[in-house]
Amino acid sequence: DVKVTQSSRYLVKRTGEKVFLECVQDMDHENMFWYRQDPGLGLRLIYFSYDVKMKEKGDIPEGYSVSREKKERFSLILESASTNQTSMYLCASSPHRADPEETQYFGPGTRLLVL
Amino acid sequence: GQQVMQIPQYQHVQEGEDFTTYCNSSTTLSNIQWYKQRPGGHPVFLIQLVKSGEVKKQKRLTFQFGEAKKNSSLHITATQTTDVGTYFCRGDASGTYKYIFGTGTRLKVLA
What we know:
Shape of chain B: globular
Shape of chain A: globular
Radius of gyration of chain B: 13 Å
Number of domains of chain A: 1
Number of helices of chain B: 0
Number of helices of chain A: 0
Largest sheet of chain A: 7 strands, mixed
Number of domains of chain B: 1
Oligomer: heterodimer
Radius of gyration of chain A: 13 Å
Number of strands of chain B: 11
Helix content of chain A: under 10%
CATH class of chain A: Mainly Beta
CATH architecture of chain A: Sandwich
Helix content of chain B: under 10%
CATH topology of chain A: Immunoglobulin-like
Strand content of chain B: over 45%
Order of helices and strands of chain A: EEEEEEEEEEE
Strand content of chain A: over 45%
Distance between the termini of chain B: 41 Å
Number of strands of chain A: 11
Largest interface: A-B, 25 and 24 residues
CATH class of chain B: Mainly Beta
Largest sheet of chain B: 6 strands, mixed
C-alpha cells in the first residue's frame, strides 16, 4: 500500500512565523504535489515536483515555496504566515513523471491555523 | 483559465434514495478522475474515465464521461450511510500535472 504521511495533523502558528509542512511518501513516486483545501473552493494546486530539486508553480504559489532535496520528501514553506493561509494542506504523490493520467495518493492533511 | 464546476455543493438524502453529482468543464478534458473524501479524511481515488461517452460501474456507483469530454457525472443508487463524504472530480485538459479539481459535493445520508 502506498503511504503518504504529513508531519502534523494540526498546527497553530502566529502571523509572520515561518512554517514548514513536510510530506513523505514511501513508494518511490516521482511526482509530489501540495494543495490547499478550503470550503467551497475545492483543492487548489500550490506547487508540484516531478523530480528531486525540480518544482513547478501551481495555481496559487504566492506566499509559498517548496523544497525537494530527496525523492521521498516534499516540503511546503510559508515564509511569513498570514491569516489568509489558514487552511487544510494536502500532500499527494503519483508514480511516474511521464503519465499525467495516473492516480494521486493523498496524505492525511495538515490543518493549519494562523493567528 | 480552465474551470471545473461541480454541482450541487451539498446534498442531503434519505438512506435508500439515489444521488447524482455533476462536473462541468469550460474546456475539453483529456481524462477525468473521481475521488471520495470521508469526513475528517483525505481524498481517495475512485475511478478514471478517458474515452468520450465512457460509462463505468462500481457496485452501486455509475460514472459517465460526456460525449464532448466536457462533463461527467457520478450516480449512486440506493445510498447507504457509508456513502457519506465529499465527492470530487479531477479534470485535466492539457496533459500536464496542473489538474483542476471540482469544488466537491458533500453528501449526507440520513438513516
